[in-house]
Amino acid sequence: MPNIPSVLRGLRMPVIAAPLFIISNPKLVIEQCKAGIVGSMPALNARQTSQLDEWLAEITGTLADYNARNPDRPAAPFAINQIVHKTNARMEQDLELLVKYKVPIVITSMGARPEVNDVVHGYGGIVLHDVTTNTYARKAIEKGADGLVAVAAGAGGHAGNRNPFALVQEIREWYDGPLALAGAIAHGRSILAALAMGADFAYIGSPFIATHEANASDAYKQAIVDCTSDDIVYTKYFTGVYANYLAPSIRNAGLDPAALPEREANPIDYKSEITAARPWKDIWGCGQGIGIIREITGTAALVDRLCREFTEAKELLRKTWL
Predict the structure, then answer these.
(1) What are the pLDDT digits (tens) for 119-136?
(2) Letter string b/e over residues 161-192, b meaning 16 or more CB atoms within 10 A of that residue's CB
(3) CA-to-CA separations, 23 to 82, 191, 210, in angstroms, rounded
(4) What is the pTM of this model?
(5) Of 203, 212, 284, 158, which is closest to residue 30 (Cα–Cα)?
(6) Long-range contacts of 258-262, Cβ-Cβ distance < 8 Å, separation of 24 or more
């Protein structure tokens, strides 16, 4: 793995848990890391910077204690998603906390900013930047990102519309550094497929919504279990940026998922605190891969399933074709 930073080596399997808006919390991140995959959460899930300080202290302290008690199988590193768009008024304050706790992996979104990369590099961290097109990928690397998250069609939340085969192969034409692939990955076979396509990691989000540790309502978690890709709606109506949502939550808001207006109802504005009243806060983001999710379970059990499926898929491929 010559082009993979040391912090991303030694994982139980090549998986990075996606930072889930509102849903990811310290408990989920800690369990993801203890299970052997990179755990993550958005900085803005903390209502205020002071709460982010408390959460980072909890995550780093808990994982340090776990590692001291389990030197033979330490936890995987964690990541914090940092919105670097100019409307995020908290960015500078939150960035100071990333430095304070030396967050090992920072996932940047909504623009690529060299000054943010420089700050993270200053304490020895790495930056992965999420992109939806090959053009954005080039810009991110030119501005100093250490790796990329290719957010392909079918991913939950804010997602691109590129087929993953097309997106990964275009990026791999010129880039040989760390690359994670997001988009409808919910089974061990899909993790193997992401690697076969040319990615180094699978970036998995929606399955973790249906875990006991996730900060999601019981109704949201059950919808993940009950719904399939037929229930996913791709629209920019709610935030001004195209994203995938669960149709039942749109109906619950009194809207017709099949007849949403083209205009943006509430363009996203990161100047607002996460606690601000937003008419779209109960619209549930979700990716297209949920058809395989059969139950609400613990994070450790979910990772165990993915690992078992990943191992079985590798063995089947070896017996069949290799």
Answers:
(1) 999 999 999 999 999 999
(2) ebebeebbebbeeebeebbbbbbbbbbbbbbb
(3) 15, 22, 10
(4) 0.94
(5) 212
(6) 260/233, 260/235, 261/237, 262/237
